[in-house]
Records
---
Amino acid sequence: MNPNSNRFLSALAITAIAAVSLNSCKPKGAEAAISGDAASKVYVAPGKYDEFYDFVSGGFNGQMSVYGIPSGRLLRIIPVFSTFAENGYGFSEETKPMLNTSHGFVPWDDLHHIALSTTNGEHDGRWVFANGNNTPRIARVDLKSFRTAEIIEIPNSAGNHSSPFITENTEYTVAGTRFSIPIQGNPDVPINTYKQNFKGTISFVKVDSSTGHMNIAFQILTPGVNFDLSRAGKGKSHDWFFFSCYNSEKANTLLEVNASAKDKDFIMAVNWKKAEQYAKAGKGKMVPAEYAHNIYDEVKHQATSTIEKQVLMLDPKDCPDMIYFIPCPKSPHGTDVDPTGEYIVGSGKLAALIPVFSFTKIQQAIANKTFDGTFDGFPILKYEAVLHGEVQKPGLGPLHTEFDNNGNAYTSMFVSSEIVKWNIKDVKVLDRVPTYYSIGHLSVMGGPTRKPYGKYMIAYNKITKDRYLPTGPELAQSAQLYDISGDKMKMILDFPTVGEPHYAEAIPAEKIRNNSIKIYKIEENQNPYAAKGEAQTKVTRNGNEVHVYMTAIRSHLTPDNIEGIQQGDVVYFHVTNLEQDWDVPHGFAIKNANNAEILIMPGETQTLKYIADKVGIFPFYCTDFCSALHQEMQGYLRVSPKGSNVALMFSTGKNYPAVDTTTKTVKP
Amino acid sequence: MNPNSNRFLSALAITAIAAVSLNSCKPKGAEAAISGDAASKVYVAPGKYDEFYDFVSGGFNGQMSVYGIPSGRLLRIIPVFSTFAENGYGFSEETKPMLNTSHGFVPWDDLHHIALSTTNGEHDGRWVFANGNNTPRIARVDLKSFRTAEIIEIPNSAGNHSSPFITENTEYTVAGTRFSIPIQGNPDVPINTYKQNFKGTISFVKVDSSTGHMNIAFQILTPGVNFDLSRAGKGKSHDWFFFSCYNSEKANTLLEVNASAKDKDFIMAVNWKKAEQYAKAGKGKMVPAEYAHNIYDEVKHQATSTIEKQVLMLDPKDCPDMIYFIPCPKSPHGTDVDPTGEYIVGSGKLAALIPVFSFTKIQQAIANKTFDGTFDGFPILKYEAVLHGEVQKPGLGPLHTEFDNNGNAYTSMFVSSEIVKWNIKDVKVLDRVPTYYSIGHLSVMGGPTRKPYGKYMIAYNKITKDRYLPTGPELAQSAQLYDISGDKMKMILDFPTVGEPHYAEAIPAEKIRNNSIKIYKIEENQNPYAAKGEAQTKVTRNGNEVHVYMTAIRSHLTPDNIEGIQQGDVVYFHVTNLEQDWDVPHGFAIKNANNAEILIMPGETQTLKYIADKVGIFPFYCTDFCSALHQEMQGYLRVSPKGSNVALMFSTGKNYPAVDTTTKTVKP
């Protein structure tokens, strides 16, 4: 018997879901009937392409994964918040600044959510955003290069969970605190003064419409709740943003019981247009706030990190009519806006029904002041006044809802391990299918946009157990693909995922594939250490710092012999890949490095820092099989004792060694 | 025009493969006809299992990947030589020692080859070995837990490429130097004294037949060539090991030209039984050699790293009849032994034919001294005397050969991007299929064993280009699955892979799946910092070192509030997962850590080190979605200024805070 199950059940009991045991994940019913043509529906024959790119958050791996749908094949892992030995991200001198934060270099984060950029509420295929949950951050990946282009830290925050959801024209990407903490003022307070001292914030990060560059426009101070998820309005609700929050009890211990005490928590509705006006009108004030802002320049092929020092904070006390609270049963996770922008679906993970709110009614209730008291001084809209309807008996543990192009909604049910399809207008349940097991988020193709594509839906499950061949105690997580083109949902594929597939967004392949770049043009390379031809290769010394300007091209590293390095030298290998062909990266590694390798794309320069701490001969080589003579693409570094009289010299192989002891910069 | 192509072509011209351009990867012929039932052949319906586990090296990502075959689904990435933010490998205190080396902590390596353990030459499903190419090492993964159990460094080596191939009963796993270097003696010599001063070694690492523990039995000093791959004999050739070598020219610069000067390089045949006898007879000597030996204990849940100081070296001058050289055209990559042990196939990557050597003839040539001179003092066997036959016109750039259960061989052709099937007995070509593009290794199910399973073959390609939807300049690498059950090979699936799928071995699922463990038993947990129940949780201080003995169980971390930490403290969070259910890991992360998270399997303890460098309130939480109330599985750490009078205290949530200022170790 799970020694904590009583505690857990007591929380559940309050919600009238008394008989649930999390230990029996397997739904009782038979598995969904597998249609005979499922194989042909998911099979992408050699030489053919998937229909959709699926951008999947990696959860606790800190990366973003790209899957092809319907095949479920992993097309690429894009490193975002975690170091990635595979291509040197976070190890090369050029990429290290991407992982800088206000408290130094951080090699990891917990990437939960994905937001593809939109124009008029439809995917435009330009960028994909992701949140860092542990060190509060938002990242932007450029979909031309599939590279992390920018990371901005969110100050006055802890647990950036309700993020990076975006407004319809990608005007803003948002960030809300999952954990409230002391904001400004004295940070060293007793934890049990939570109710007095702990606050939340939500941040609106402006996205430049042409470059994508992010800047924190303003933050809004909020009550000390836990924000979970959020969604922007659409169409008529364009000016609003909806944040789900739990722990309106403001508990600071035993949250699994104490944050589930009330019947209803809230969805917080924020009029961001009004907030924008308040910010412009000088209603906020600049407050001290240290946060890193990191940008990767794909022309210089290097990242820069700037530490910002203040941020504009709006106190809602000074900003009337900006924030309203909508009661929502109970500990809501998802707050999802349908394609028309009229309906807002709350998914109270401990609730036995799914409330659907009407934007029109919300506006009426605000106009008519149909309030039901206040929360921390903010008006609470009357539940019945803003309710469109309740989906009754949907299942247990509703978490998240997405939409198709035919007026249907699909809600994931964590506790009862199923997906429920229901009609938005009449809130009637239409169909249900099992998931294996314990689904978290789901994703309909284009599901959060104004024009969903439908066709496929994917369940991202939290528990895998027996779905695949076992791999010891640690298992891949389970995703399941459903055909939703007909009236009934049909499970057609199980596919495992890396990390935790927390959330995902899918986009038709044609919106991205033709803009995807294949190489970097060598003539545009502005890395200060680039050698744009073998004639530009050199080795220079400045004190104990040695710079090797190296080139890589099939099948040679130039220089391939280097001598005159002394023990204690710090050697920077700046390797430029001279190739201008698609898919001919080179790699570089050297023996005895306490570092990784670097992988250099055609036209690019990357730098590996090497501490020459031992005397001897250390081979280096290309790590990415590039040609029939890849294995011969190697060289040697000679490290002599400190004070040795071996002069700095290097070779392109023609007339080595050649020494010019006057300049200490030697060319054969 | 590739500015280096003249240099490259001059090397190729010597080999009579003059007209090859690496830039045009796409074979001219039409793609292999896709059989109409290919979809059903590779489709594994939801709830069904793959037939084979495929253990795939990750190349430059340093990890090992496990794929299901025939679906091509990635079942798991097993971290081996590189840090892995996804589960805290190389970040947790328990796993950090696994990446220790003689030159400190190294966060990366280049994992090239896989060897599944065998008994009588057949897979026994116990362990899988992998080589570290950059820092010379061999790793052993335990197939009960799919965890890296042991890593041993190889001294007197550089570029451990021809590794970790094993003998028939897993008596030894071997390691040969890809790069020759100065071995013993003065390591600081001019690089152009290569011919005088640079040597190779091959190492025989004994594997304990019951525990799998590795120890270096002996090393053999060899000529200064580059060893590429190797294979043990089988059956009649059981006592022998065959190593391919290139750069018998002993060039030290411009290897793509200078190491391709000779018509033939060699396969080095080593009588390891004789070597073993010489070692036992005291023919070797102990030489200084610093190398790390790291073992992960799955009962203590922690790794230890020992630095060894010497190794037994055999000088072949003192060991007659142990080593012979077999001429092999040209720069051989693969040296592969057929299931009977009679035939050894050399794959000279610049050769226009594939030589097949006869073990019987090799023995006759040795007995009759049918030599053709010497290489560095070792007898060279006469090519014609040991040749079984030559596969004529197989294609361009033969790299690697595996075998089926019907007397057929399959050789990968890098330059002409194809696989050629041929009959071992009459060396006649039977079939050829294209690969997309530039295949490196291939893998037949059970292909390197005495009893191949056949049925499927996989091409691991080096160039991907247009095989999948584009993902910017960096692409996943391409694997292709072939049905080889009939006379003709049929391509049935493209599947992308993580890292570089350098080599792989596949094993029938039933040989592993029933031995795979699901949890660690909590009562067997011997981690000294384990709390085996919430009653055992505590927080202790010793100077500025604080130890938190924490438990995780759905849906609570105990303690969940901790105060009395002072700025500058080093806090160790020892988190024990109390769950005893399959697939209920918990994770742990804390804000402002300059570290990763940890992922803790049921019954296990893992430790995260946290430097309390800032004053404030820092939330911690479970990072692996575990229950409906996972989001509530959180707590707070309060860090006060140094010298603060806030006493050390913590909470299980019941009567917090409670303070005992006398002991500084406080329990409510």
---
Amino acid sequence: MRAKVHVTLKKGVLDPQGEAVRHALGALGFDDVGEVRVGKVIELDLSDEDRGTAEARVSEMCEKLLANTVIENYRVELE
Amino acid sequence: MRAKVHVTLKKGVLDPQGEAVRHALGALGFDDVGEVRVGKVIELDLSDEDRGTAEARVSEMCEKLLANTVIENYRVELE
């Protein structure tokens, strides 16, 4: 089974990488771009067959390693 | 209008970040995780009202800045 984990910064958390992208876009002439936020997507190949087990295990991976839950949200999507 | 740009490494391109995540997951006991790939999601606030114009402009941003098209694919999603 394949899992996709979407990790995004929580609302209100400053995103310097997004700010840098916005600035660079402005320098290229795209100066009407508003807020830019940059997140991560982590794709995992899992050996689990059962969706429930897989989802629980991926959530555990997020809590322990993939996301910093103080400042980031995550969403697990199974394929 | 809001756009989401998904940037992923092309097939066959080595992903050291993904490999590091796989290794770290293994060290935490998740040792049956197969390949791991790490991508980016860039969320942009656009002032364009027209979907066609917005899509064309975001594709241009990808070609010029957001993606390295030699090693990365991108996908634009408008909301």
